[in-house]
Amino acid sequence: MSPNLIAPIVIAPLIVWRLYARTRRSFGRQPIQPKRMWTRVGFLSVVTLLVASQGFVDPRLATGLGAGLVGGVVLGMLALKLTRFEIDGRNDCYFPNPWIGMTLTALFIGRLLYRFMVLYPQMTHAAAGGHAAYQRSPLTMAILGLLLGYYIAYYAGLLLHHRRVSMDARSKQLS
Length: 175
Prior knowledge:
mainly alpha, 3-stranded antiparallel beta sheet, elongated
């Protein structure tokens, strides 16, 4: 077996598992889990900063990432308006908009497939030094920014909603 095929074979199950988890979180009733959501917001913010550092190498990448982040935040706020919330007993739950989740998942999967199918031959013949042409794609950065901006804004909005609902519940208990 070629060494060039080992990495995709090893990484493919991990990618499939994460896509399954992402898709499952986009549909149906989801509990609001503040600790997990704060962890996700923090992790995605760090990833955003690390990816943004590529803007020092090529300003086009920073432009793509910035445009994607703005679009993602706008999409996240729209998704919050379309999200249904439910409180049953002590649990605060939400129903995410399935169309937005499915569209983002399809966009992400499509870009991954494009990168693996079309650009794989370029990756094997890349120059040893510097960033190869397949790594300098403002479109990829825009899609990544869209996902990062969306999930940061969406989870932060869910956490704000949860905090507001929790404070209302406490004030009702005190009165």
